[in-house]
Automatic annotation (TrEMBL):
Cofactor(s) named in the record: Mg(2+)
Entry GO MF terms: catalytic activity; magnesium ion binding
Protein name: Malyl-CoA thiolesterase
One Pfam family here: HpcH_HpaI
Length: 292
């Protein structure tokens, strides 16, 4: 179950223990929300957070936003109950923390099936440890319910004992391995968070780098960064115009029985047409999201 094409420019973490945040998420211009039961929730608030997320999703009102529930790990006292509860909601996905093997994905998939998770509910994996990087290919192909990866760059930097530099050069190999695995299996992949909320220039640079590397969007920790992420990961007007031009030229050539398409002196191959159509579809979906 490869991730369905949809805007994922901005995906905001929201603590499940904060009822006010869960309410605010219904009106924020983020493409997606990660309703968090793990890092953002204190141990003594885990059960309350789980109940609040379930209740919020039952109430609805999140529109076209993609909703993921980040559970605690199965090796914790709360993980199994989190997955059972999440499986019974209308959430789009369950996000698993610190996934290091394909077996973890399959184990969670079995629980979801047993608990009646809806057919479209996917599994996403936090990729945030060295072992996860080495096993990225196996994890990506673990189960048909897998929908995508989320980079946990903060925890990864700690485990690598590397510097969290502005250019993220110490993590480039890890980012690349996960990107390769995700694209090989048709998965979506989101870039990690930028922790310094006072560093607007650094955030913008991180978004640009993520877009250049090939990420679908960026995970966020504060609503004030949503607009910048949306702008960074949206296709430029010039890209959309060029894509539409390619599609129109290809359709015209096909109608005339021509096998060769040339646009502005450039030979257009079928692969270019496929990419152009995907970009236009995404641009239209983004327009719908922004208008909602």
């Amino acid at each position: 179950m490869a991730a369905a094409p949809r805007p994922r420019r901005s995906v905001l973490y929201m603590p499940g223990s904060n009822a006010r945040a869960l309410e605010k998420g219904r009106s924020l211009p983020a493409d997606g929300l990660i309703l968090d039961l793990e890092d953002a929730v204190a141990p003594d608030a885990k059960d309350v957070a789980r109940d609040q997320i379930v209740a919020a999703l039952a109430e609805g009102g999140y529109g076209k936003r993609e909703i993921q529930i980040r559970t605690n790990g199965l090796n914790t006292p709360w993980g199994y109950a989190d997955i059972v509860a999440a499986s019974k909601t209308a959430a789009d996905a369950i996000l698993l923390p610190k996934v290091e093997s394909a077996d973890t994905v399959r184990q969670v998939a079995n629980i979801m099936e047993a608990e009646g998770a809806h057919e479209g509910m996917t599994i996403w994996c936090m990729m945030e440890t060295p072992l996860a990087m080495l096993n990225a290919k196996e994890i990506a192909g673990a189960h048909p319910r897998l929908g995508g990866f989320v980079m946990g760059t903060s925890d990864l930097a700690k485990d690598l004992n590397c510097a969290h530099t502005p250019d993220r050069l110490p993590m480039i190999t890890s980012l690349g391995l996960c990107l390769l695995a995700a694209r090989a299996y048709g998965l979506a992949i989101l870039d990690g968070v930028h922790l310094d909320l006072s560093d607007d220039d650094g955030f913008d640079a991180s978004c640009r780098q993520g877009r250049e590397l090939g990420f679908d969007g960026k995970t966020l920790i504060h609503p004030k960064t949503i607009a910048s992420a949306n702008a960074a990961f949206a296709p430029a007007e010039s890209e959309i115009a060029w894509a539409r031009k390619i599609i129109a030229a290809h359709e015209e050539a096909a109608a005339e029985g021509k096998g060769v398409v040339v646009v502005d002196g450039k030979l257009i191959e079928n692969l270019h047409v496929v990419s152009a159509k995907k970009l236009v579809v995404m641009a239209d979906l983004i327009a719908e999201m922004d208008a909602a």
